[in-house]
Amino acid sequence: MDCTLCRTPAQRFTQVDNREYFRCPCCQLTFEHPDKLPSPEQEKGQYDLHENQPDDPGYRRFLSQLADPLMALLPDDAQGLDFGCGPGPALATMLQEQGFDCETFDPLYAPDTSVLDRHYDFVTCTEVIEHLHQPAREWDWFAAHVKPGGWLGIMTRWLIDDTAFANWHYRRDPTHVCFWQPATFEWLARQQGWSLHLTGNPVVLMQKR
Ligand SMILES: [Zn+2]
Ligand SMILES: [Zn+2]
Question: What pLDDT is stored for residue 50 in this prediction?
Answer without folding.
Answer: 76
